[in-house]
UniProtKB/TrEMBL annotation:
Keywords: Aminoacyl-tRNA synthetase, ATP-binding, Cytoplasm, Ligase, Nucleotide-binding, Protein biosynthesis. CDD domains: HisRS-like_core, HisRS_anticodon. InterPro entries: aa-tRNA-synth_II, aa-tRNA-synth_II/BPL/LPL, Anticodon-bd, Anticodon-bd_dom_sf, His-tRNA-ligase, HisRS-like_core, HisRS/HisZ, HisRS_anticodon. It catalyses: tRNA(His) + L-histidine + ATP = L-histidyl-tRNA(His) + AMP + diphosphate + H(+). The lineage of its organism: Bacteria, Pseudomonadati, Pseudomonadota, Gammaproteobacteria, Alteromonadales. Residues 1-327 form the Aminoacyl-transfer RNA synthetases class-II family profile domain. One of its GO terms (biological process) is histidyl-tRNA aminoacylation. It is found in: Cytoplasm. Homodimer. GO terms for molecular function: ATP binding; histidine-tRNA ligase activity. Belongs to the class-II aminoacyl-tRNA synthetase family. This is Histidine--tRNA ligase. NCBIfam families: hisS.
Length: 424
């Protein structure tokens, strides 16, 4: 036998048994963004490599080691998008959506990062994200967090996620802090792990969220960013906290939270769960007022987040909240004998037209009564419709309940639609 070709490591098929929970998550996302009046944007999966280098930053995990970069046939360097913000800004600038305007945008789709595959971490994964442009005040930071809180509530997981919040200040404040932090790290160089040593000059803030225990212990005495914040940054952050208090969204302030991407300023946040092991961040984001200008547009305030869909689906599965999903099929139409196939197909067609939300599967491929009933049962349908020669002769259809012991009943063809509308 020929050797089978396998999927690429870290890139998953989404099988029919899994799609209902994905569809549930996606439909809750769609209804939530619509409740806040956000508009969808779809951008290509491939972009110029420079876009991600210039936005995400050269000294970040993503650009240093995770991008799928290749030369196309023209010799141009292209990259499969590792995240959605850079593309959204690129598209916004290119189509004049951001210039002196407010935009509340959302997107959803696959992202690609060459990471070590493990639970909750894949090489193709999916993100839903929002990006808001043209509004610099803290109320919009609060709004995106309210939207995420609504998602948790609709998904039934609000008890299982918590919000961590921090502020990174503005670029000048961060630059001053950066100097102080580098000076501190230089004094303790011998205690740093290799990653931190490497980042000490290129991206010292990332040392703050080092996973190394010794480094974490050392950081207890490091200078605090909070001491370098100016009045405006402080007020922005305290206003955000007040707004979250006002709408009852709980949070913890985590002064070590810095996020892996370069473009953030002021507000940064993560929603985390303790139910997924080490891949516990389910949604992350913050303010990035400098990025639109950095990518060639007019300076425009911006805030956004990205949520990983795989981790949400895993969380729903772990909490066993993936079982209440409506079956794919309501009615399974059977034909008792070859002479009844035409009539059965006509009944199925009529039902789909008259009751557009009804899910009707018709039996194809023949088989005896027992076989057809087995398939009807397997389909998950509530009722089987039985169409045999007697039924056709009397202009009737038999409705057989599949999920309880209620009696089968005969109805006339003209009563069928009304009867099913009542039953389902
Ligand atoms: P992590 O610290 O887990 O690597 P990150 O800081 O790289 O996350 P972001 O770039 O902010 O994550 O992406 C936002 C969200 O997208 C994450 O919180 C996570 O839910 C999801 N995500 C990121 N990378 C992956 C991946 N490789 N596989 C699955 N989900 C991912
Ligand atoms: Mg990462």
């Amino acid at each position: 036998m020929a050797k089978q070709i396998q999927a690429i490591r870290g890139m998953n098929d989404l099988l029919p048994t899994q799609s209902p929970v994905w569809q549930k998550v996606e439909s809750i996302i769609r209804s939530s963004v619509s409740a806040f009046g956000y508009s969808e944007i779809r951008t290509p999966i491939v972009e110029s490599t420079d876009l991600f280098k210039r936005s995400i930053g050269e000294v970040t995990d993503i650009v240093e080691k995770e991008m799928y970069t290749f030369e196309d046939r023209n010799g141009d360097s292209l990259t499969l998008r590792p995240e959605g913000t850079a593309s959204t800004v690129r598209a916004g600038n290119e189509h004049g959506l951001l210039y002196n305007q407010e935009q509340r945008l959302w997107y959803m789709g696959p992202m690609f990062r060459h990471e070590r595959p493990q639970k909750g971490r894949y090489r193709q994964f999916h993100q839903f994200g929002v990006e808001i442009y043209g509004i610099g005040t803290a109320d919009i930071d609060a709004e995106v967090l309210m939207l995420s809180a609504r998602l948790w509530q609709q998904l039934g997981i609000e008890e299982h996620v918590s919000l961590e919040l921090n502020t990174l200040g503005d670029p000048a404040e961060r630059a001053a802090y950066r100097e102080a932090l580098i000076a501190f790290l230089e004094q303790h160089k011998e205690k740093l792990d290799e990653d931190s040593k490497r980042r000490m000059y290129s991206n010292p803030l990332r040392v703050l969220d080092s996973k190394d225990q010794n480094v974490q212990a050392l950081l207890a005495d490091a200078p605090a960013l909070n001491d370098y914040l100016g009045e405006e940054s402080k007020t922005h952050f305290s206003t955000l906290c007040e707004l979250l208090d006002a709408v009852g969204i709980q949070y913890t302030i985590n002064s070590r939270l810095v996020r892996g991407l370069d473009y953030y300023n002021r507000t940064v946040f993560e929603w985390v769960t303790s139910s997924l092991g080490s891949q516990g961040t389910v949604l992350a984001g913050g303010r990035y007022d400098g990025l639109v200008g950095q990518l060639g547009g007019k300076d425009t305030p911006a805030v956004g987040f990205a949520m990983g869909l795989e981790r949400i689906v895993l969380l729903l599965e772990t909490l066993e909240l993936n079982n209440d999903i409506a079956p794919e099929v309501d009615i399974y139409v059977t034909a008792m004998g070859d002479n009844c196939v035409v009539e059965a197909i006509k009944v199925a067609q009529e039902l789909r037209q008259q009751l557009p939300t009804l899910k009707v599967m018709s039996h194809c491929g023949g088989g005896n009564f027992k076989k057809q009933m087995k398939r009807a049962d397997k389909s998950g349908a509530q009722f089987a419709l039985i169409i045999g020669e007697n039924e056709i002769a009397n202009n009737q259809v038999a409705i057989k309940p599949l999920r309880n012991n209620n009696e089968q009943q005969l109805v006339t063809r003209s009563e069928l639609v009304a009867k099913l509308a009542e039953l389902i």
